[in-house]
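User: For documentation purposes, I need each entry recorded in a consistent format: the amino acid sequence on its own, followed directly by the corresponding structure tokens. There are two entries in this batch. Please keep commentary to a minimum and don't merge the entries.

Assistant: Recorded as requested. Entry 1:
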Amino acid sequence: MKKLLILIIKFYRRFLSPLKKAFYHILSPELGENIGCRFYPTCSQYAIEAIEKYGVFKGSFMALRRILRCNPFNNGGYDPVK
């Protein structure tokens, strides 16, 4: 189950994430250049690390919490898996 979930996240990073940036670039070229993750490591990398370290359930919960924090009211920054 863990390997399948990580494979899905890697598929998202490889194929779907670049489409998001291209879509924003079509809507607004200046916005498309500035689009990116507000956290380091990125949310997808954080999810992979959390799932590898804590397992499917706790790692997925941690990743979901991280994604919910990704909003305009949060500055982001360095947030490693602890």
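Entry 2:
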Amino acid sequence: MPKEEDHPERGGDKESKEERTQDAREDTVRKRIRANTPSPHRGNTPQASPPRFVSVEELMETAKGVTNMALAHEIMVNHEFQVKPAELPEESLERKVKEIMHKAFWDCLEAQLKEDPPTYGHCIKLLAEIKETLLSFLLPGHGRLRTRINEVLDLALIQQQAENGALDISQLSKFIVGMMGSLCAPCRDEDINKLKESTDIVPLLKAIFSALDLMKVDMANFALTSIRPHLMQQSVEYERSKFQEFLEKQPNALDYTEKWLEDTARCLREAGADGSSAASSDPPSLLPVDVHNHAYLRLLKWDHASDPFPETVMMDHVRFQEMHQEAEQLVLLSTVLLIIYTTTGEAISGLPGLMETLKNTVNVMLADMHTPSFSAQEALATIGEKLCVELSQCLSQHGYSPFSADRKSTLRGQISASIQPDNTIRKLMESRVQNYLLASLESSQHKTPPSLPGGLAPVSKELKELAVRFSRLVNFNKLVFSPFYQKILHQILSAGESQT
């Protein structure tokens, strides 16, 4: 779409206009980041993380200078972060104004080309913008393509051809589409093929601009993937320095972090004392890394409604809440599936596809388990009924003895009882999930994934994905706040040893 400063009705000082545009862009970035940065005071039930929509220019400016802490943090910890085309809300005033302006421009362009002789003022400005965009896609090694674009889209020559009535817009459009096909990502090949089939000049130019906008997004995401490793150290140093500035103004800004680590060390000492042999009256000594890893694991069982979250992980408060909920759902899902297989016996263990069918059934019923309207008791009762029906059908189809009423009653009762926190099977699966996540932290430095505990094979894919995200988030947090953690852990463990 043509830039607003190219519109024939617009005038004014170009330099001041660029300054106003830059100020408006920076203000927009600040507002979007404030809206997307999680706050501990926005309620206790997290929502699914919404995609962060930022423009290409905003992303690159932030990545170059690491000038925005929240956006840089988002890029580092969220490897699924991508630039998305901004979409104005339906029925919004901004969207209506934009549609009216665009329609007016393209109608004007079509009218100019239908004049006798045609007027090419608007068209040449479009070609200039297309040329600028194509050149922006080139890498330093694309010297031949750069020369070719400059030769064919020579604006001075195009202007002369227009004045002499010798300008061939169709031929230039074919060159542009061909060049776009050479530079675009494979996912855009279908869009480029549709452009090649178009013959009407105005619709073709309009479609070219739409495709170029998508290619800009693709290029930004490619650049994002490329710069992420180089951004790591800058982002770590930036976040650490900003927190240090805050700590100098607020000396008690680590109170909750200290309590978090102290409570973890105390729990580990008590557990060690309980498990120590009778010959040894002293609990085993604690290592800082063990206390630290167990402290992060506690964040996945945190009581967000009553306990203040540690300051050093506050920026990822919502992320830890979401992982907490995912872990709880995996525990309950694996509990129900284990009950099914222990109750029904060997009959269904080798049936192809049955596990996935049962898993999907339970997953659908547990999808809203963290919403206020969810009733766990009703959901588990419904799950028990549906699974009895599916198991009966499956056993009869494969020639096994019918699913008796007693077995159905036992299965429904055990599934309903799994909602209790002290349920034996549920406690077992919770312990195994927690141990796997802890092992993933301990092994993340060695790049060797831990072995999967028994009973978790049906949820292995989801559990491994959760472990990867959890480890990535924890390791980045350790990098940023390591000087603060080392000091606190040294004080805590030294005090504990002296007391012992």
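Summary note for entry 2:
Confidence is low (pLDDT under 50) at residues 1-19, 28-53, 62-67, 276-281.
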